[in-house]
Amino acid sequence: MPNIIKVQNPATGELIQEVKVNSEDEIKQALKNGHESFKSWSKMNAHDRSKLIHAWSQKLKENKEEIAHIMTLENGKPIKESLGEIDYSASYLDWYAEEGKRVYGRTIPSHTESKRIIVTQQPVGLVAAITPWNFPGAMMARKAAPALAAGCTFIVKPAVETPLTTIKFIELAHEAGIPEHVIQCVNGSGKNVGKLFTDSDYVRKITFTGSTPVGKTLIRDSASTVKHISMELGGHAPLIIAEDADLDFAVKQTIATKFRNAGQTCVCANRILVHETIVGSFTEKFVAEAKKLKVGNGMEMETDIGPIINEKGYNKIVSQINNAVEKGAEVLVGNTYDADKEQGYFFVHPTVLKNVTTEMDIMHEETFGPVAPITSFKSIEEAVEIANATPYGLAAYFFTNNYQTGTYLHDNLDFGIIGWNDGSTSAAHAPFGGMKESGLGREGGQEGIEPYLETKYLSIGNL
Ligand code: ADP
Known about the structure:
This protein is of the alpha/beta class. The protein folds into two domains: 4-233 and 438-461, 3-Layer(aba) Sandwich (Aldehyde Dehydrogenase, Chain A, domain 1); 237-427, Aldehyde Dehydrogenase, Chain A, domain 2 (3-Layer(aba) Sandwich). 38% of the residues lie in helices and 23% in strands. The chain has 13 helices and 22 strands. Helix 3 (64-75) packs across helix 4 (79-99) and helix 3 (64-75) runs antiparallel to helix 6 (163-175). Adenosine-5'-diphosphate is lined by residues 130-132, 159-160, 190-191, 194, 210-211, 214, 217-218.
């Protein structure tokens, strides 16, 4: 890899900034520094750590406009979504600043009068994070916040597409008073930095958000030093619309969950399954709404859909659409592009596909683009069967006002996050994470701090 990362604006292809790639020696030194600073950070009381994490959150809020600007420049997402992501990131900091004060232990009644049994929790040590480009702020915040609150030190490698938001976040953490070596950022290719992280004895935990194949590599490479691991990997969310659903509400929510971040999120609806009696009316309303979405440069306030992050992402989307059309899908809107490989920008207009079948790639592979494939089902049992026929198990959505249908769907869908009449489920106070090949561990909520803690059992005798 060259020793410079050229960060480009995906809406124009223009160079925004060059970022230095850290050398192997620099990264090793940073890991050592992170390990050494653990001694003091882990001993600081939780209330003082909390104040510093809240101060970091405050800095994010004060600099919201500037960071959102950086985020939209490097990621392309609409500015209104970037502004929302700063608030969302700050909400993780505030939640875990408080949650860190509630890392409780317990006592266990002993089997003899001469003993006491006490259980405490302590931070795991230096945490190394690898984060993706689709939420460059939030994916880091929801790892860093519980890590720091628990008393761990933290080092992050952001995606090469979007290092600038992370660099700004870390700069503000230091300005807020969090010591320099307690939270650090290093830059370089995923492969190189990932290997330095997994090989290091200093790193006690790897936390990763990204694709399932890379997650599997990191799990494998963490085995040699038996590290703790948290993995937020790919998804292929089904969205089921039952016969009795409130159609207008379902359409609105499906638009939101499908087209947020131009469809580039791991919880975006990837398969829309509609009961056969209402598939016609749902599709008509959905297409009408999809046509209203404005594609363009994220810097413009009225933009709903920004560019695709890069050529690789774009090629995958186009190939899934072509594959579906070859196999008999009908394009109701979209399948139109504004792309220039020379300049380096790739826009895909919102695309809705009808008559989609399970033989098509789009029904199995993550799309990460603004394409909505619609198919129908006859019974709720059949919908569950189609929905579960994937190695992924991150998010699933369904729309029904019938409590028996809803309960059945909740009980039988093999997914870690379920939205019942809800297309936007993420919140700092709720556990986010997947089953099956979508990952290990949870981020957010009470559960989100546990992966950063070790249990220590103390047995006191001779009393
Ligand atoms: P995507 O295909 O959506 O970019 P990736 O899983 O490739 O998802 O990337 C997510 C993050 O993982 C990025 O920070 C990237 O640099 C990093 N990464 C990519 N390949 C590897 C690897 N072999 N080892 C460790 N990290 C990697």
